[in-house]
Amino acid sequence: MDFLLTEEQEILKNSIRKFAENEIQPLIKESDKLGKWPEILTQKLGDMGLLGIVIPTEYSGAGYTNCDYVIILEEISKVDPSVGLVVAAHNSLCSNHLNLFASEEQKSKYLVRLATGETLGAWGLTEAGAGSDAASLITKAVKDGNHWILNGSKLFITNGSLAEIHVVLAITNPEDKRNGISAFILEKGMDGFKVGKKEDKLGIRSADTSELIFEDVKVPAENMIGEEGKGYRQAMAVLDGGRVSIAGFSLGIAAGALESALKYSKERVQFDQPIAKFQAIQWMLADGFTELDAARLLTYRAAFLEDQGKKIPKESAMAKLFASELAVKSSSMAVQIHGGYGFTKDYPVEKFYRDSKLATIGEGTSEVQRWIIAQKVLSEY
User: Fold this and answer.
1) Which CATH architecture has domain 7-120?
2) Which secondary-structure segment (H or E) carries 156?
3) Are 92 and 114 contacting, i.e. CB atoms less than 8 angstroms apart?
4) DSSP 143
5) What is the DSSP string of 325-361?
6) Considering only CA atoms, which of 166, 179, 205, 195 is closest in space to residue 29?
7) Half-sphere exposure of residue 302, counting CA atoms within 13 Å on the CB side?
8) What pLDDT does 349 receive?
9) CA–CA separation, 107 vs 55, rounded Å?
10) Helix, strand, or coil (residue 227)
């Protein structure tokens, strides 16, 4: 058992930190204010290998491990969680679904485009009536010769209006919820496939979140991923890994908020001394950094087991639950330490505060994570 990063991982960590500070930091205020993705970043992320993180090198990916992936997401999200979420959704959901379950022909056709930064990818599962109850889809696909005809809509899709490649889940057998869902590859520009409402959000504002609408979209039969009826099982496996990525994203928010609070507490003078000298502030920081290390250990454990090819529903849920709730707690505490200044846009903690809440909702709410953990614990002991 080794708790140290390798030399290569230390180099990776430093390179991502510099990239985030140099290429992402200058864009934050404007993109957050406008609620618009800075498209110049897409190719830069691709050039850094950050849009093909766990994709094998034979498909132009970087071939990093899942532990490397956590390092990357923490360093990016420590600077801007919006970019962290875009990277996580692109890699863990769209690209990884293809990586795990697509045919060789599909991988060759789509993964290279995704990994190199030619385009962002999106993953369509959530609907207005199918959130935590992911099997309650109403988007349908009906076989018509060598095609499937899709009708329905998806909601809250990260990269929805930007992506050219979408993995979409739809009902192909209405008689069987879980075993009647299949996955399809859709491309932007297909007849009847359009983007609906773009969400104006509380936080994570520059990450595109949009509705997708399907009106008699004609999808070639060869664009089905894997076997008919296997889509729900595929999605659950994809979400196991996705929760590790959201845990890494949450680590970045918590770390960014805590480091900002620590810095401010050393600079802010009250009653003739820095507020860091007061026990009330010291105990906040002590608890925050202790819990941050605990969240890292849970997250790296889940990533390590994933790298070993293990099934990780409990471990990924534990990591995601603890890290996401810590992100909210730490960013709230950081605002408190900043006092009135923490409520202004002059300091980064107000954005961490707004951005953090999504971590406890996206890719399975905290309540869903607790249910998953409870079911595993009840069956194991």
Assistant:
1) Orthogonal Bundle (1.10)
2) strand 147-158
3) no
4) E
5) HHHHHHHHHHHHHHGGGGGSTTSTHHHHHHHHGGGGT
6) 205
7) 29
8) 98
9) 10
10) coil
| Model pLDDT, residue 178 | 86
Contact of 31 with 74, CB cutoff 8 Å: no
Task: State the span(s) of the chain assigned CATH 1.10.540.10.
Answer: 7-120
The phi-psi region of residue 248 (left if phi > 0; otherwise alpha if psi is between -120 and 50; otherwise beta) is alpha
Return the CATH fold of 122-229: Butyryl-CoA Dehydrogenase, subunit A; domain 2 (2.40.110)
Section 143-157 average pLDDT: 98
pTM of the model: 0.97
Q: What is the pLDDT of residue 155?
A: 98
For CATH 2.40.110.10, list the domain ranges present in the chain.
122-229
**Pick from 95, 103, 20: nearest CA to 62:** 95
Mean pLDDT across 134-142 = 95
Q: The tokens of 381 are what?
A: 């002991």
CATH assignment of 232-380, among 3.40.50.1100, 3.40.50.300, 1.10.730.10, 1.20.140.10: 1.20.140.10
Active site amino acids: 363
Q: pLDDT-based confidence at 233, cuts 50/70/90?
A: very high
Q: Are strands 209-220 and 147-158 parallel, antiparallel or unpaired?
A: antiparallel
Instruction: Name residue, tokens 């897409």.
Output: 42
> N- to C-terminal Cα distance for the chain?
25
Residue ranges matching CATH 1.20.140.10 in the chain: 232-380
Closest CA relative to residue 13, chosen from 62, 80, 69: 69
User: Which residues are 270's β-sheet partners?
Assistant: 273
Mean pLDDT across 232-247:
97
